[in-house]
Amino acid sequence: MSQIYNVLLVDDERDIVQVLGLFLEKEGITVLEAYDGEMAYGILKHHKVDLLVVDIMMPRMNGYDLIKKVRKETNIPIMIISAKVQLDERILGLDLGADDYIVKPFEPLEVVARVKAQLRRLQKSESIGEENLKYGEIELDQEKCVLYIEGNTIDLTKTELSIMEAFIKRPGKVFTKEELYECAWGEGAYAVDDNTIRVTISRLREKIGEKRIKTIRGLGYRLEKNE
């Protein structure tokens, strides 16, 4: 990865921050550290941060509240790392605008792989030209990370942007969960997480309309034109 990126690790368990920091620094990534939400928010205000990796259960300001504040100001990629394993917790995190959710305990190399995938997509989005992608009444502005539908502007996360880009570039194609996972998290990502894909598709449907993304039973998903 030729460009130097800054990743902010936020967790009240300092051992986790230090271990992940060592692995990421070996990949040439600059690591910033915070141990609660308020400390992290202060760093975000005064430093350039390209990716936020955040725990949920922290003192002073928890991860959910931090994500809410960050999403009001920026669309940088956000990854959650949490001991909360329940599906409703994952849904909440992704609904608030997180791009990925990893459950503790985790394998550090998996986290590194997912961080690198997010940064590759960020690098790709930064190099995109001005021409928007269009499909029917849907227009995708990759640079601004927004969709335009029937005069409405819809903000997307980086993960949602990648999935919509895949749908629009190959209209009519049925994407399997594995293919969507690769589009969103990159080649070499670890095992496909059905819950994460399902929640992300559900969130996209809420934003663009239930009927615009069709489930093809036993196969995957396809983008539809609004009839």
From TrEMBL:
GO terms for biological process: regulation of DNA-templated transcription. The modification 4-aspartylphosphate is found at D55. PROSITE patterns: OMPR_PHOB (PS51755), RESPONSE_REGULATORY (PS50110). GO terms for molecular function: phosphorelay response regulator activity; transcription cis-regulatory region binding. Residues 130-225 bind DNA. One of its GO terms (cellular component) is protein-DNA complex. Residues 130-225 form the OmpR/PhoB-type domain. Gene3D superfamilies: 3.40.50.2300, 6.10.250.690, Winged helix-like DNA-binding domain superfamily/Winged helix DNA-binding domain. Residues 6-119 form the Response regulatory domain. Keywords: DNA-binding, Phosphoprotein, Transcription, Transcription regulation, Two-component regulatory system. The keyword Transcription applies. This is Stage 0 sporulation protein A homolog. It comes from Priestia koreensis.
